[in-house]
Every structure is written in C-alpha cells, then in structure tokens.
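Entry 14. Ran structure prediction on the chain below.
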Amino acid sequence: MAREPMSKRTWQQAGVLTLVLFVGLGIGLGASLLIWPVTCVDASPIDLTDGAECRWAEVAAIAYGYDLDLAKARARMRLLRDEADDALCAVISGKCPSCTADGVLASQVLLESLALTCGGD
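Output, structure tokens:
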C-alpha cells in the first residue's frame, strides 16, 4: 500500500505550526533576557569559576591594601574555602587573565599576611 504525498494544505499547516513555534521561542527568549533577566544575588565566591575566584581574591587583596584589616581579609578569603591560597597564587603567577598589576602586588602582601604559601615556595 503506497502512501499518498502530503497535500499542499498539509504543508501549509506544518509551515504555520513551525513558524508559530519559532515565534513563541523567540518571544520567550527575548522576554527572559530583556524583560525578566535572571539575577544571581548573594552567590557565594566558592560557586564562582576559577577565573572569577582569582578575581575575587584580587579584589579582597586590594581591599586589604586599602583598609589593612586582616580580620576582614581573612573573612573574605575564608569564603573561598580551600581555594583561597590557590586563587591568590593564580593572581601572583599571572594565571588570572583579568587581574591587574596592583592586584598582583596586593595579593603578594595579603598572601604573606595570611601566612599562606604557593605550591612552588
């Protein structure tokens, strides 16, 4: 038994349904990105990517350079848990692409103040 080819009307219906599907997806994506974007509030630094963790360490080190409050610096670095020394070492060794020269110097000072060492030391 041979199947009959789809009629012109069936092709038109399939085309309209496909168009409606893509228009709906476009509207949904546009609304989620422009009207109601997802925001991440109070994310823990431990949940950040490696690059963002080293940036967090750099900012914490720069903040320590400004206020010289070692207790605050310890609290900021404690948020990185076990990755604190690795993140500071990444800043110092230049493995953090978004870090600045000021951050490298501040990270060296903070690393010494917290009595942490890098793996090669």
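The radius of gyration is 26 Å. Will compare against last week's run tomorrow.
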